[in-house]
Amino acid sequence: EAHMDAAAIDQSLDVTLNRDLSDRLVFALGIRLERGLFSQPVVRSQNIIRIWPPTENPRTPEEKEVKNLLSRSAPEDLRTALDTGRIPVIFPQGTRAGADQVMLPARASVIAVFDEIDVDYIFPVALQGTQNILPRGGRPQRGSYSVTYCDPIDYHALQDEHSDKHSKRYREAMMDAIMIPIAAVHPENQRGPYATKV
Asked: How far apart are CA 71 and CA 67, in angstroms?
């Protein structure tokens, strides 16, 4: 996720007069964003579920303990969010595209979380330009961004297309089905691993 992706989604719903929908969002965000000088205020302005950054390994025993704790609590928090009418937002790429804005492969392990919390529908969202406004290690900059809401995916119907729901191939196929509509919004040279699948 980019440092301002959560705020971008929230603001896009405000602009389209969907404040009631915006109020129901809860973002699964890596705890590192809580420490950034410029990302911290953005994170504090949102309803969040704290997760360990999926792209990082713990560096100390204390961090390992925090990762284990968050690995147990995050799915429970996501399930609670769904049960109470909230809308969880998950960033399956786990980190941001670089300055070239080329998409990164999504983490298929996210599918295990979706299965565990028994998701009904997935609404893919394509974000472009947010990484330039609040760059990693840099100051906020003026710029424009876009938020595109793709057609909803019936998650259970998608599951029914696969017989072995415990295989790596199942997780990868499910994640591709979610990411391909997002890739289709991007220019061809930014689709990364999804370029040949769109």
From this structure: 6
Whether this prediction's pTM lies above 0.85 is answered by: no
Element (H, E) at 180: helix 168-185
Q: Which long-range contacts (CB under 8 A, 24 or more apart) does 55-63 make?
A: 55/94, 55/95, 56/30, 56/32
Determine the Cα–Cα distance for residues 87 and 68; give it in Å rounded to an integer: 24
The half-sphere exposure of 129 on its side-chain side, counting CA atoms within 13 A, is: 11
CA 85, 66, 110, 45 torsion-angle sign: positive
Distance CA 21, CA 86 (A): 9
Please list the pLDDT of the chain residue by residue as tens digits (198 residues): 456 788 889 889 888 767 788 889 999 888 877 776 666 766 677 788 988 877 788 889 999 999 899 888 999 999 999 999 999 999 888 666 666 678 889 989 899 999 999 999 999 999 988 877 876 666 778 888 899 999 999 999 999 999 888 899 999 999 999 999 999 999 999 999 999 999
